[in-house]
Every structure is written in C-alpha cells, then in structure tokens.
Amino acid sequence: MVKIKSVAKALPEHSRSTEEILPYIEQWVAGQEERFQRKVLKIFRNAAVDRRYSIIGPEAMFSTHGFEARNDLYIKGALDLSEKALTAALLKANWNPTDIDFIITVSCTGIMIPSVDAYLINNLKMRQDVVRLPVTEMGCAAGVSGIIYAKNFLKANPGKRAAVIAVESPMATFQQDDYSMVNIVSAAIFGDGAACALLSSHEADEGPTVINEEMYHFFDAHHMMGFALKNSGLHMILDQSVPAKIAEHFPDIVHPFLAKTNNNIEEVNHLIFHPGGKKIVQTVEDLFGKLGKNIDDTKEVLRLYGNMSSATVLYVLERFMDRAIPEGDLGLMLSFGPGFSAQRVLLKW
C-alpha cells in the first residue's frame, strides 16, 4: 500500500490583501479608458481572493520587464520555497533528507535547467542515488499528477519513500504591457506558493492510502489552458469555456473512476479539489452540491492564498491531513490542467 505521510506548505515573503493591491492596479490601468478601469478593479474585488503571496514585491511587479529578469526572479523564489516546503514536510514526518528514494518536482511558471530537484539534492545532502523526476507543462493539474507518479513508483518499489514538491510563481508571468482580460483575470486569481507531499510504501508509515488514481483527457481541448511563450515571457491562456467544459464532462470524470473501486460519490466524505478560480469553483461547487457534497476547504484556500497553480491542491490536502479524520473515510482529490485534462486520486484514511 502507498500512503501519504505528510504535507507542508511554504509561502513567499511578500503578501498584500486585495485592498492593498488595488492602488497598484489603479496606477497600472490609469492610461486606459475609464469604463475599462472600473471593470478591472471590479474583477479584482470579486475574485474571491482576500490575499495573494508573491516572490516579487509589488513595486518590482510593475517595474521588472523582460523574460530573463522575470525568470531569474522565478528561479530564486522557486529554490527558496521548494527547500522550505520539503524541509517542513520532512519535519512533520520525522524523516531525514536521506530517507527519500524518489523526488518529483512540479512547476510550470518558469524555466530552469538543471531543475529545482538537482539543487535540493545538493542543498539538503540527499542520497546520491535518489531518483529524480522534474515535471513541467502540466499546469494546475501537476500537484495531483505528482501524487500519481509517486504512487506508481512506490507501488512498484515496496519499502521506499517519495517527495512531491510543487512550486509556482504565477506572479512572475504577469505581463505589464498586456491589458487583455486573460492577463487581468489571471493576475486577479493567482498567487505564488509551494507545497510538499511525502509518500511511502513502508509498512510502518501511516497516513491515508492511495487506493486509485487516474487521468482523464479531453479531446480537442488543448487550446483551452496553458501558456504562450513570447519575447516578454509566458502569456496565460485561459479560455472562457473551461467551466462549461468541466460541467459537460463531470459525470464521466467522477462516477466511472469511483466505480472502479466499488465506490460512489455518496460514500466520499472529503473533497480535495483544486481551486482554479471563482468561476470554476462555483461550477464545481454546484455540481458537487447537487450530490450533497461541499468544497468549503477549496474555497477557503482560494480566499486565503489565491490559485498557486500546481501547489494549490496540496494546500487543500494539508488541511485534511492536519485533522483527525475517522478511519475508513474516503477523500477524492481532483484537479484540472492544460491538455485539457482532469487528474484524480482516491484516498482512504
């Protein structure tokens, strides 16, 4: 059996409430048409995000130009946050860095070669035979993807341990000269952060068991979500049809997956859903609400931190890991990302 031993998060040093951010936004859109300015401020106020964290201070956010400069900030922040998240998770588990056999790092908001896991191995003096898997280009789904990859590695290798580190800086992708709705909406809902989940196939290790995991791929939907790499950096792609597409496929995503372990949605006690943004959260909340379920923890993570891409679902998972969950309870992890795809993991406490 593969179990999740611990989950821990790490936050950047810079943070501002929505009200504190609004003056910067007002200054940014000052040269635009007045009606447009009001619309932008309304988007930020209504994003269901009370506070955003960032590796970049607010002044630098609007003064640092160019892909190279932005990516350098991403690298610095990713190295710092990933080490803090991994160290915190190891402390919770009472493990040493040398206890890790498999290290997976997931990120999509910057580019670095060697990847962040190479630095973690050096900085924490991990074993020299640790197996590395850096995962990019999976977007918001990658937190669950990392769990899936770790589970399959550990299932094939009993008595081993794995670390999944998700580290993201969507703030480093903000485009100062782009006044499109996609750039504005992404700035309103996203924030920076990192999280680490430790998994184990050691018999002695405790935690919720991963009893099933699957990916679900939408056909002809690769245009709906992702990044376009331009001279100025990574430009967000976020199609307005995403919530409707999720609703259309929702029954096929949830019910057959649960049926494969002879379960159904009525038996699921906890929903660990990635908060993509207000509209996606509202769509999924309505779909689960009709089934008698809630995603209150998802909404709270969105409110407290914003969408931190791949790391966010692990923030939701941490809230459940830190509680006294009754033995036998089921938890469904679910996230969506570029491809377009849905990633699912079923946990049993």
How would you describe what is shown here?
With 349 residues, the chain is an alpha/beta fold. It folds into two domains: 3-200, Thiolase/Chalcone synthase (Peroxisomal Thiolase, Chain A, domain 1, 3-Layer(aba) Sandwich), CATH 3.40.47.10; 209-348, Peroxisomal Thiolase, Chain A, domain 1. The protein contains eleven helices and 13 strands. The chain has helices spanning 18-28, 34-45, 58-61, 67-93, 116-123, 142-156, 181-189, 242-259, 278-289, 296-305, 312-321, and strands at residues 3-10, 14-17, 51-54, 102-106, 131-135, 161-168, 193-200, 209-217, 225-230, 233-238, 270-273, 330-337, 341-348. A five-stranded mixed beta sheet has the order 1-7-6-4-5, with helices on both faces. Strands 8-13-12-11 form a four-stranded mixed beta sheet, sandwiched between helices. The chain has a two-stranded antiparallel ribbon with strand order 2-3. Helix 1 (18-28) runs antiparallel to helix 2, helix 2 runs parallel beside helix 7 (181-189) and helix 10 crosses helix 11 (312-321). The model has no long low-confidence stretch (mean pLDDT 92).
